[in-house]
Amino acid sequence: MLNKIRALFPGLEIRENEPLKNHTSFRIGGPADVMLLPKSAEELTALYRALLEMDIHPFVMGNGSNLLFADEGCRGVVIKTTGLNGVSLAGDGIVRAESGALLSQAAVFARKNALTGMEFAHGIPGSVGGAIIMNAGAYGGEMKDITRRTVYLDTAGELREVSGGEHEFSYRHSRFQPGEIVLYSEFSLQPGVEAEIQEKMNQLAAKRKASQPLNLPSAGSAFKRPVGGYAAALIDQAGLKGLTVGGAQVSVKHAGFLVNVGGATCSDVLALIDKVKEAVFAASGIELEPEIRIVR
Known about the structure:
Elements lengths: L1 H7 L4 E7 L11 E7 L3 H13 L5 E3 L5 E3 L4 E7 L6 E3 L4 E5 L4 H10 L2 E2 L11 H7 L2 E2 L2 E2 L4 E7 L5 E5 L17 E8 L1 E2 L2 H18 L6 E4 L9 H7 L6 E2 L2 E3 L6 E4 L5 H19 L8 E3 L1
């Protein structure tokens, strides 16, 4: 397989037995058998189609800010999209960002072009593609509020696009299915004043720094917001701040975060998730659902 890929894509970066802990914000995960790093939407499209023809179904990731990989790693092929990182204007008030671009990069681009509406995304550490797939949000804003159009590959490698409500956005959800690959999205923004946009970004950054454990590896909010409450408040009320399994800990700063305090394994995190879910259910009758995407 690799010899054929090398022949078809001579400039493609290929890594074998690549430690996935180096590619996630949690700093956890064993090796991927093969990691492929395309540098354009065209190369990714051709690569995906070639893999499907070889009956290989790769796992596709962006910046790895919401992923927990197994300690044993990931068998088969992983495609990392961060080489697709272009951000540009696609019309009046429209920013186009490729799937591997960081949300912060797209938000800064919007600010430099005096476009407002993307400030909420500036501090979210994920890539555009991941944010679209999970309808990422923070501080009252979500991707559904600004996304007008997305071009993607379906599971058969065919080029598709959706607009507006066709994204089927809801809380931490979209219409995209496992195996579909976002290539780029377009965002509808409003004219603004760059200094005011920067000030709003500064205010949100200060809130994050004050309330979130940004100094420790994590995958962001560990649990989805349940009906009838907030995950962090429920975890705090159950007295779980500081609860530790191995190197994984419920953050003492923000109970909604599980952090890697040093040498945490996937097994540590999974055991901690189970303990938190059990304790919260016993205390409140509410069952928490992980927001972290677990890959094993």
